[in-house]
Amino acid sequence: FTGNTISFYYNDIEVKEPRISITIDEDNDWLIGEGIVAQIDTSRMINSCTVNSTDKLTLTTGLQETVSATFEDLNSIRKYGYMSSTFSLDSTEKDFLEEVARVVVQRNSQPSYTYAIKTVSNEMFVPSDIVKLTAPNAGFEAVLPVEQVDTVISSGMIETTLIVGERQLPVSELISALSR
Prior knowledge:
- The longest helix has 15 residues, at 94-108.
- The protein is elongated and about 80 Å long.
- Strands 1, 2, 3, 7, 8, 9 and 10 form a seven-stranded mixed β-sheet that branches. A three-stranded mixed β-sheet has the order 5-4-6.
- It has helices at 74-80, 94-108, 171-179; strands at residues 5-9, 20-25, 31-41, 48-58, 64-72, 84-89, 112-119, 130-135, 140-154, 157-165.
- The protein is an alpha+beta fold.
């Protein structure tokens, strides 16, 4: 809580069946500002991933070599360009390294889309609510989770800004979770 702004953050991963809380249309009377504002984030995209072992594998000849695995999403590379990353893990199991590279690419080969909607409605939104977002003029319709809710109270008015969409898990957190 800072000044007259309250921010709530939460992502409920336990919800198995999404229930739409509200439908937001670009023609709603209670939308203010620029309406529905889209943001496309490619900063965390990875469509080619190499995972190297930090340990050396001893071969039957007595030589040691580093084990590595690479996974690429060729469709994503053609569409967005080559975005690669290299990571190191404490494992010499090639299958495991391949699986980590595959999961990293699958989770990060597309940009993340978020939408900001500023409203003057008296609706109460909480993160993890499911919102159906439609923009008929753009031919767009999507069902997305609320990621962030900012409520500003000033001059007797309540303005709520919703951030809906899917934020990507930082790659370091994803690899850390896979390594457990």
